Amino acid sequence: MALNILCNLWTSFNIINKEGQVRLISVPMGEQVKEKMIKCFKFVFISATIVIIWVGFIFAQGPNTFWTKTYGGGGNEVGYSVLQNCDEGFVIAGYTESFGAGLSDVYLIRTDSNGDTLWTKTYGGMEGDEGWSVQETFDGGYIIVGGTQSFGSGNWDIYLIRTEPEGVGIEENGYPRELFYITCCEPNPFST
Questions:
Q1: Secondary structure string (H, E, C) spanning 108-167
Q2: Quick one: average pLDDT of 9-23?
């Protein structure tokens, strides 16, 4: 059908006559132009087919996966940051709507090297609270930065939480978003 459409193409020209009026004139294309267009169409069609098959083949072979885990309850849970610990386990920071005190709470999950849960902790108040990034501190605890609607002075404020190694909260501070920023740097500023 596509070849049929190509074979029936017309070329259009705008022509201005002696009176200054613009007229559209359509002229059928010559046979040589039709043949070139058909060859071009076949080339594009075959090339696109090869690319689609190649991309499908590449993406069909996923990377090797050692394990896959899910964490959470009946509500929404989102992980924003993951960190591998010295013992090759992991800590995940995000938020949970299934557990905790409010609409959403900071969710800290500690796992072993196989992704099996060692412990989970939630932090927050009655409104929305989220953990966006986590770093390990010099004593094996964690520092979490996120956002809070439960504490502070505005709609969303920076939420900084310092924990012991088992995730027990030591300090929870809400800072106005405009006044406090954490950036990545080496060495870790929280380990001094």
A1: EEEECCCCCEEEEEEECCCCEEEEEEEEECCCCCEEEEEEECCCCCCCCEEEEEEECCCC
A2: 61
Give domain 77-184's CATH number out of 2.60.40, 2.40.128, 3.30.700, 2.40.50.
2.40.128
Q: Is the pTM of this model over 0.70?
A: no
For residues 87 and 110, give the distance between their C-alpha atoms in angstroms, rounded to a whole number: 11
Q: Which two tokens stand for residue 141?
A: 């605890």
Neighbouring residues of 133: CB distance < 8 A, sequence distance ≥ 6: 80, 81, 93, 144, 145, 146, 182
Q: Is 74 helix (H, G, I), strand (E, B) or coil?
A: coil
